[in-house]
Amino acid sequence: MRVTTRALASDDAGLAARFVAALIGELAPGHRPDLPAMTETAAALLAMPTVTGLVASRDGRDVGLIMLNECAAIYAGGRFGEITELYVLPDCRSGGVARQLVARATDLARARGWTRLEVGAPDQPAWARTKAFYQREGFAEVGPRLKRQV
Fold first, then answer.
1. Burial code of 119-149, b = ≥16 C-beta within 10 A, e = fewer?
2. How would you classify the pairing of strands 117-119 and 78-88?
3. How many domains does the chain contain in total?
4. CA distance readout (Å), 107 to 42, 100, 101, 103, 112
């Protein structure tokens, strides 16, 4: 089965929100995302020139999503991309969907002159398979990522 990808537009906000809600549901069981609020946020983000969403489809069915943000840092040598969300439906995993999304993100990074792609992997060791996927795709571990709510 062939996987195709396409860029998301602002009117795809509901689709993006549903995929991200499913991702959150797996990462934080019991947490119930506010889908209308997420859809509103997705629409606003997809309208920004620094945010790109891609959806993967197989046989006409949307099966995966990757969201990218353009960032900039001196340590990175300028502009770079960050993968903020990557999700593939459970019944489509290990079938090359995530690999295709990352490959398309890499192509976009090159076209935009980004120096690198970064991604934060979920807590270990519970998500070791996710970390192993990124390492197979050429990502190197550089240390933990921390956050502070403001």
1. bebeeeeeeeebbebbeeeebeeeeeeeeee
2. parallel
3. 1
4. 23, 11, 10, 6, 9
Asked whether residue 147 is domain-assigned, the answer is no
Q: What is the pLDDT of residue 89?
A: 97
Mean pLDDT by groups of 10 residues along the chain of 150 residues: 91 97 91 94 97 96 97 95 96 94 96 94 78 89 76
Q: Are 36 and 88 spatial neighbours (Cβ–Cβ below 8 Å)?
A: no
For position 132, what pLDDT does the model report?
Answer: 87
Whether residue 93 is contained in a domain is answered as yes
Instruction: Cite the DSSP H helix spans in 1-150.
Output: 13-27, 35-46, 97-112, 128-136
**What pTM was computed for the model?**
0.90
Structural domain harbouring 23: 8-136
Closest among 40, 116, 32, 104 to 67, alpha carbons compared: 104
Is 44 a member of any domain?
Answer: yes
* Residue at token pair 């192993």: 132
Residue 86, in any domain of the structure: yes
What pLDDT, on a 0 to 100 scale, did the predictor assign at position 32?
Answer: 87
